[in-house]
Design brief:
Number of helices: 14
Strand order of the largest sheet: 2-3-1-4-5-6-7
Number of strands: 7
Strand content: 5-15%
Radius of gyration: 19 Å
Structural class: alpha/beta
Mean pLDDT: 95
Helix content: 40-55%
CATH architecture: 3-Layer(aba) Sandwich
Length: about 325
């Protein structure tokens, strides 16, 4: 990474003030981040406590000022369209296999019903808290520098991973501010995770009590090489859009250029192995998420036909294969 080190609180305050300068107690935001953003995000009780303080310093989630700061988070997360049905859903599995896309497909509710889930939530009825969008928002200065300076996928992925690691706790604090507002409105909520460990299950259990129904939808794929190609192409497209966005000087363009998380194609074999192990040894065994509803979706990727997805039925047999919609 080039340039002098900039502390987390400075980057976040500068990034957000470029989007909405008024209506925020920046001194308090800076102080809260300086105190809490350097600790592990997985100490959820502490992260929740700092998030509570941060929520008091930022504009209310329902205000136009907050909407200008976190435009992409709210719009593409479906904040306004989400329904008050009190589901919380963890969408788990390897990157680059269209698991988020699947949650918005018109057949997704049917697939989940085949997996034994009654009255299933889908993307269009839920607020999808995308950590990628939050990260690109609170650290848009860092993203602009990355877009301007990195030229190859490998170094780009490494730098992006460093940004995600450094700003993870701050992003989780903002995410909890959003989730507390979603809970007050009893909205359906979705999260995405690679599933490499059980951290996100612990996160959901720490934030949502038993009045919310909990569901994990685990996605796997027939051939990891398709995921690698997908992630490689997505990252190259992101680099191209990001370079143009950074040159424009528009922070919103920088935020919208981001297309996903930090894993490059070289990381996917280990991500897949870890996610399969956690699903088998921790989730299906009941060690974690014992009281959660569970659905497994198998993605079949091919070069000669549309990708498809099929749920695993409760009897252990695959359900109906549904084709993904054509990509624009």
């Amino acid at each position: 990474m080039t340039g002098a080190y900039r502390c987390i609180e400075d980057v976040v305050c500068e990034s957000l003030s470029r989007l909405e300068a008024s209506c925020t107690d920046w001194s308090s935001v800076r102080s809260i981040l300086a105190e809490g953003a350097y600790a592990s995000h997985k100490d959820w009780e502490k992260t929740k406590a700092y998030a509570g303080r941060l929520g008091g310093a930022l504009p209310d989630v329902e205000t136009p000022a907050f909407g200008r700061m976190f435009e992409r988070v709210l719009k593409e997360g479906g904040w306004e369209a989400s329904e008050p049905d009190k589901w919380v859903v963890l969408v788990a599995g390897l990157n680059g296999i269209r698991k988020t896309t699947a949650m918005y497909e018109p057949w997704m509710a049917d697939a989940l019903r085949e997996a034994g889930i009654s009255d299933p939530p889908v993307g269009t009825t839920s607020f999808f808290r995308q950590l990628d969008f939050i990260m690109a928002t609170i650290a848009n200065d860092e993203f602009a520098a990355m877009y301007s300076e990195e030229e190859d996928v490998e170094s780009y992925a490494r730098r992006k991973a460093r940004i995600f690691a450094e700003y993870r706790t701050a992003a989780e604090m903002v995410g909890i501010v959003l989730l507390e507002a979603a809970k007050r409105a009893q909205k359906n909520v979705m999260f995405e995770t690679s599933g490499r460990d059980v951290g996100m299950f612990e996160y959901v259990d720490s934030l949502f009590d038993d009045t919310y129904r909990k569901l994990v939808v685990y996605f796997d794929i027939n051939d990891v090489s398709f995921a690698k190609r997908s992630v490689d192409q997505r990252m190259r497209d992101e680099m191209r859009r990001g370079k143009a966005a950074a040159a424009s000087g528009d922070p919103l363009a920088t935020i919208y250029a981001n297309a996903g998380g930090p894993y490059g194609p070289d990381a996917l074999d280990s991500v897949l192995a870890d996610s399969r192990r956690v699903w088998r040894d921790e989730i299906l065994s009941g060690r974690v998420g014992r009281d959660w509803a569970k659905a497994a979706i198998r993605i079949t990727a091919t070069d000669v036909a549309p990708w498809s997805a099929a749920a695993l039925r409760p009897d252990g047999h695959p359900g109906t294969p549904f084709d993904f919609s054509p990509r624009p």
